[in-house]
Amino acid sequence: MTFIYPVDSNKSHPLPLSPEYKSSIKRAPNKPLIPMRHTLSELTGPVYGHETVREGDSDLTTQHTGEPIGERIIVHGHVRDEDGRGVPDTLVEIWQANACGRYVHVRDQHPAPLDPNFTGAGRTESDASGYYRFVTIKPGAYPWGNHHNAWRPAHIHLSVFGYSFVTRLVTQMYFPNDPLFPFDPIFNSVPDEKARARMVSSFDLENTKPEWALCYRFDIVLRGKNATPMETK
Amino acid sequence: MKPTGITPSQTVGPFFKYGLTPSGDYAWNDAFTNSTLTPDVTGDRVRIEGRVFDGDGVVVPDAMLEIWQADAQGRFADPQDKRALPNASFRGFARCGTDKDGNYSFDTIKPGVVPDPDGKPQAPHIVLAVFARGMLRHLYTRIYFSDEAGNAADPVLTLVPADRRATLIAVREAGKAVYRLDLRLQGDDETVFFDV
């Protein structure tokens, strides 16, 4: 058992240096990464959830005394590996701007209102089938200094652990049909069009709650581990 | 239904702190700290500290580092490791955001020896993941310890050109259980990152 997690899977990721995204220019390594075999250190990983997730952590609309402003949404889906198996008991953490496109963060100086009833952070644990669910507010687009008239498409940041340290993933979930997609160097840092599409959630009418909230489905796919060199197929 | 590929990585962005790291500025983030230490942990307690720099030698104030390591006996708190942990509450994971001067620190224990796939001993090491604004995918590296004789024969460290190995070795400060390791994302002294 040498490469239990196929390195080929990593082709879906952006290249470290993506010059249109200016912050990557001085932060991407110049020297080639050094290939190595996975050892126990890479094949194991933290299992988090049970103790860290509190009741209510997955509902970002009920963390304060009042209701946040904006469009209430449900975001749900499965954490799976690339062989289609649900990944249970994994911690899913999210953080996002409010409905006006403003983060709580002290460094966000975008002149849009802060919402006293919205922090924009949540966490949950996937269940035995890998299913997770959040209730939140649809984030707004916001300007950033990358280039003239640069606006980030609305997005929710997600952090997921899988079975091992090499399946660790931080990504962003986007919303369908966003007109800002063609102009966003972070979204477009993923060269493959099909891989890019996997970062876009789908509108889910079936699970939209009447008179209450629209629903979006976002399946998160982590590296799978059965494609080992020993496998015969 | 079999998916057609994995979800691509995206940058953690500059605003992760209130969601992920305990900076003290926000009420939310109490889930993780920069310490793996638990009351029942055994082993040599050490502190690892350093700074993160970009290609111009400018500090990176918006990086997030995560460590994952074995306990002092080389065992991982992972269901795949069937050996019982001697320290029941030790998790082996910690997370730290850099401060405005690019500083990070971890309080932990020195890990034990972990075998490589051939069963050969690996020198004590900590796996480190580096996230930051501007980094579209996090980077993997390792932290070794300057006072370990086993470094010379470590199967991963020996994959690294000799003149770059120092970028992975935290240097023990005289008379203290403190090791220093700066990370350089780019440039002449660029930290070695691994393709895993």
Key terms:
heterodimer, A: 233 residues, 2 helices, 12 strands, 4% helix, disordered C terminus, B: 196 residues, mainly beta, 1 helix, globular
Order of helices and strands of chain B: HEEEEEEEEEEEE
Q: DSSP helix count of chain B?
A: 1
* Portion in helices of chain B: under 10%
| Beta-strand proportion of chain B | 25-35%
How is the quaternary structure best described?
Answer: heterodimer
Secondary structure tally, helices of chain A: 2
Structural class of chain A: mainly beta
What portion of residues of chain A belong to β-strands? Answer: 15-25%
Largest sheet, strands/sense/barrel of chain A: 5 strands, mixed
N-end to C-end Cα span of chain B: 27 Å
How large, in whole angstroms, is the Cα Rg of chain A?
19 Å
SSE class of chain B: mainly beta
User: pLDDT under 50 segments of chain B (min length 5)?
Assistant: none
Number of strands of chain A: 12
What this model shows, in words?
- The complex is a heterodimer of chains A (233) and B (196).
- With 233 residues, chain A is mainly beta.
- Chain A contains two helices and twelve strands.
- In chain A, the strands form three sheets. In chain A, strands 2, 5, 10, 11 and 12 form a five-stranded mixed β-sheet that branches. A four-stranded antiparallel β-sheet of chain A has the order 4-3-8-9, with no helix packed on it.
- In chain A, strand 6 and strand 7 form a beta hairpin.
- The radius of gyration of chain A is 19 Å and the shape is globular.
- The model of chain B has no long low-confidence stretch (mean pLDDT 93).
- In chain B, strands 1, 2, 3, 4, 7, 8, 9, 10 and 11 form a nine-stranded mixed β-sheet that branches. Chain B has a two-stranded antiparallel sheet with strand order 5-6.
- The chains are: A mainly beta (233), B mainly beta (196).
- The interface between A and B is large, with 83 and 78 residues.
